[in-house]
Amino acid sequence: xxxxxxxxxxxxxxxxxxxxxxxxxxxxxxxxxxxxxxxxxxxxxxxxxxxxxxxxxxxxxxxxxxxxxxxxxxxxxxxxxxxxxxxxxxxxxxxxxxxxxxxxxxxxxxxxxxxxxxxxxxxxxxxxxxxxxxxxxxxxxxxxxxxxxxxxxxxxxxxxxxxxxxxxxxxxxxxxxxxxxxxxxxxxxxxxxxxxxxxxxxxxxxxxxxxxxxxxxxxxxxxxxxxxxxxxxxxxxxxxxxxxxxxxxxxxxxxxxxxxxxxxxxxxxxxxxxxxxxxxxxxxxxxxxxxxxxxxxxxxxxxxxxxxxxxxxxxxxxxxxxxxxxxxxxxxxxxxxxxxxxxxxxxxxxxxxxxxxxxxxxxxxxxxxxxxxxxxxxxxxxxxxxxxxxxxxxxxxxxxxxxxxxxxxxxxxxxxxxxxxxxxxxxxxxxxxxxxxxxxxxxxxxxxxxxxxxxxxxxxxxxxxxxxxx
Length: 470
Fold this sequence. Notes:
Mean pLDDT: 84
Largest sheet: 5 strands, parallel
Distance between the termini: 38 Å
Number of helices: 15
Helix content: 25-40%
Shape: elongated
Number of domains: 2
CATH superfamily of the largest domain: paralog of FGE (formylglycine-generating enzyme)
CATH architecture of the largest domain: Alpha-Beta Complex
Strand content: 5-15%
Strand order of the largest sheet: 2-1-3-4-5
Low-confidence stretches: 174-187, 451-469
CATH topology of the largest domain: paralog of FGE (formylglycine-generating enzyme)
């Protein structure tokens, strides 16, 4: 059992309800935080996020809300008819529900019923799934107290009991195996293929994920990560093939022998390698030349993955900094990925470390991997359909995943690095991608249907983020 969860919460409400109650909802949030602080003591600081109290004018409000939801250990929806009609409030509920699942819990949502909603029907709310979820949790009933003075004995007692319930839930902590369980539950097609002389490819299922890193993650890793924000939802609408491993020395050698690429330093990087090590000292342009050769040899549309495809595949259904969890420096982590020359002295064979839930090896560590996208300083205006961002800066392309030579903070699913497309280095490699042809999709859908699987349809729906009145 890991330690208790931090006393960080999220106050979800509609601003119109707060206005109509004369700011009463904001006052209750402060009073509850005080009651929790009284129970917890001085060592830990209680914080219950409320947008109007925490978001400074001029900042990206949606980014701050997503960041707060990702950091919170408990969630308090102030349930009223207006709350249930609000698209934004419903999105907050479902977003935290995902966070709750990641923590391996189902007891961190505490609905506070501020107005009686017992006669509301499911067809009168914005999202019936939210209505059903909230109705399944034990309510904190406040409707009969909402007109009482804030310092009344009834309200003080109610908030003290509420604070005690939250504290009890937080003290239960999370089990050490939660992240591994999450990884095991991630969708996985189990389909692998190879078009000789190409690399072995894994079918990555469709789905929706949050791309980028939160400010909280950046602070914890002690890095400036402005280029990884704002966090945003991306939908990979169709499955695609991705290399099970980075392209190996042996695979690249076949190409080099046929195309007279032997003069490049990939063959002698300065440390020992064999055919099963990832090829290094390859530029973006070298990778494109290899892919062009592979397309000619196989008749298939091989390419580099987009940044979004790469991050989605690297995460493999997780939302933590790394596909096995948050940390990188714990004892034994080098059984998971190859990092830092002091430990490895160079690259490691591509099958040396644990794969992620999609069956992909070395997505973090070992070698940086080229992607198709041009560099942009932030994700403002980035595609949300998984396609490569090819407009803009042509001076730099994007590397992903960190390497054996770099610090552990770079070996994260969200980390990205701009490099000239002509530049080579001893920790630069790449991984092949290929789109799924319609004939393949039809055949696989039929096969999976026969087996009773719905993998190809997992997460195919597009989630649109837009602001509505809270």
